[in-house]
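Whether sequence alone determines local backbone shape is best considered at the level of individual chains. The sequence in question and its structure tokens are set out directly beneath this paragraph.

===
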Amino acid sequence: MRQEPDPADLYPEVAAYSSLAAALQATAADQGLSLPMTATASDPLRHATFTSVIPHRHGSYVTAWHFERSWTIWGSSNNRLMICGATKDLRELPKVILGWVDGASLDEIAEAAPFKVVTGRFEVPDNNPAAVIASEWQWLLKDAREADWPQYQALIEAAHAEPKLRRLYPFTSHWALSFSTTPDYPFSLSFISIDSPRGTGGYTIREWWNGPTLTEVSTPAEAVSIAVARIPAELLQTSSDISAEDS
């Protein structure tokens, strides 16, 4: 097993301040900024948290990698990841952290960040189900376009183009696409799971992830057609009610 390096050896400039929180505050001060950071007692050299003035923004922290020098910033809103990005330069983090803390928009945070940081979701302060579903689709489309997997991208785009599926909450497990009427876990009963091929092969249709294969088709359009045909009537009604309430 690969031995994990001592964080003090991997991050000597952080160790000099005794915590990642203090190192970030010192780095921010050099840039004329003030950061409200809190050290994590269980791992002070590799973990630090910060709090936004916006109540629905939470779960905000910076973590250091264990085997190579890099830091990742995480920020969630109503239990959904909104910002996440990695950098090897500690000096690139303060402006991103401050934007999140001070309530800057996600677009403003992305503009200030010298590395990729936004996930593609948009914030839904009131947790409105229809808006959360739309936000998740936006993230899924962005993720698919960056996945370097043409067949998977084609499936996500074809599913999003179908109105009956677009009203449902999309989620993936091991890259297999499924749908739910509710954006909150536990999701509604699975009626389809679609696996995309890599290279050759077809789209595998199952009732749930890793379940027995029902059929295999050659195009995403066929897979989407089967998905629509398998939507239970009660799911269609529920999703229609959500759309009507929010129109």
Q: What stands out?
A: The first helix runs from residue 7 to 10. The beta strands are 37-39, 47-50, 57-64, 71-77, 80-87, 169-173, 176-180, 193-195, 203-206, 213-217.
